[in-house]
From TrEMBL:
This is Amidinotransferase. Signal peptide: none annotated. Pfam families: DDAH_eukar. InterPro entries: Amdntrnsf_FN0238.
Length: 312
């Protein structure tokens, strides 16, 4: 099978539709800064808001130009600074299943929106919704596909331990949605735990990108690499510097002419020529300029909630 044939073959790993939220009053969330070392604080919130609005507008348009269906929701409120990252509060799954997640920060709990769920029910076949948000009073958090990087093909949920990824909540999700949990410890050079797994790794159909040096246990690191390779994927190792520049925070999508890898311009610039070539064998890299939104500690993958449901 040629690389181009692989690109155009349908994959359950690469959704052809996403939910995005366009913020009207974007700010960097001070409540989440304590355990998110990727955040950059900024004084001029008004300036940030206008630029972030434009970045999401351009990102949605670029994805649509590549044939990705974008359901774009507006957030005109001022109490949900991280609403631009909808992948943390819900996820969708083949067979018509939807999960709603428990969030650590109170400000993030307000991001959950009934209109998003109603759109999913109207446009797609939804069989059931499992709501884990009731775990929040017990301090059990699992922040969606930020906390987990899901392999929809091999049915593995990769998860770096953190305050936002509770093992009890993870076990419940994996039992309900038929995933095998693969948990590991990950931290940067200063020993700071990685707050969300999806800044550390991306699992696509035929390849995976992962910051191996951040995984504390050599044995666990080898097990993860073996598992990814066993599923037939090429493993692209990312350096710590590339992780800091959001190279791991990418999402494979199905476009009109084949699969693409949505990632930020910052992330693509961080990759070397051989890494870009390895990605390009299976998916077209599509760079998106969201440098202002990245100040909030997340990048392209965080702004995209993939839809793994069947259209009505």
């Amino acid at each position: 099978m040629t690389a181009m044939t692989k690109r155009t073959t349908y994959s359950v790993q690469a959704p052809g539709a996403v939910v995005m939220v366009r913020p009207h009053h974007f700010t960097v969330n001070t409540e989440t800064a304590a355990d998110n070392s990727f955040q950059v604080m900024h004084d001029d919130d008004a300036d940030l808001a206008a630029i972030a609005y434009a970045e999401i507008t351009a990102t949605a348009r670029t994805l649509q130009d590549h044939g990705v269906t974008v359901h774009l929701f507006e957030d005109e409120g001022k109490v949900t600074p991280d609403s631009v990252f909808p992948n943390n509060w819900f996820s969708t799954h083949a067979g018509g299943h939807v999960a709603i997640y428990p969030m650590k920060a109170e400000s993030r709990r307000r991001e959950r929106r009934a209109d998003v769920i109603e759109m999913l029910k109207t446009r797609y076949r939804v069989q059931d919704i499992i709501d884990y948000s009731g775990l929040e009073p017990d301090g059990l958090f699992l922040e969606g596909t930020g906390a987990m990087v899901l392999d929809h093909i091999d049915r593995v949920a990769y998860a770096a331990r953190s305050d936002r990824t509770d093992p009890i909540a993870l076990e419940r999700f994996c039992t309900h949605f038929n995933f095998e949990p693969m948990v590991f410890d990950a931290c940067d050079e200063q020993g700071v735990p990685v707050y969300h797994t999806n800044v550390l790794m991306c699992v696509a159909t035929d390849f995976a990108m992962i910051g191996l040096d951040m995984i504390a246990s050599e044995r666990r690191r080898a097990e993860i690499v073996m598992r990814l390779k066993r599923s037939g994927r090429d493993v692209i190792a990312l350096t710590n510097d590339q992780i800091r520049r959001f190279a791991g925070n990418a999402l494979e999508l199905q476009g009109q002419s084949g699969r693409i890898l949505a990632l930020s311009a910052t992330a693509l610039a961080a990759l070397d020529r051989e890494q870009v070539k390895a990605i390009g064998a299976f998916a077209e890299p599509v760079a998106l300029n969201i440098q202002t939104i990245e100040k909030a500690g997340g990048s392209v993958r965080c702004t995209l909630a993939g839809i793994h449901l069947t259209c009505r």
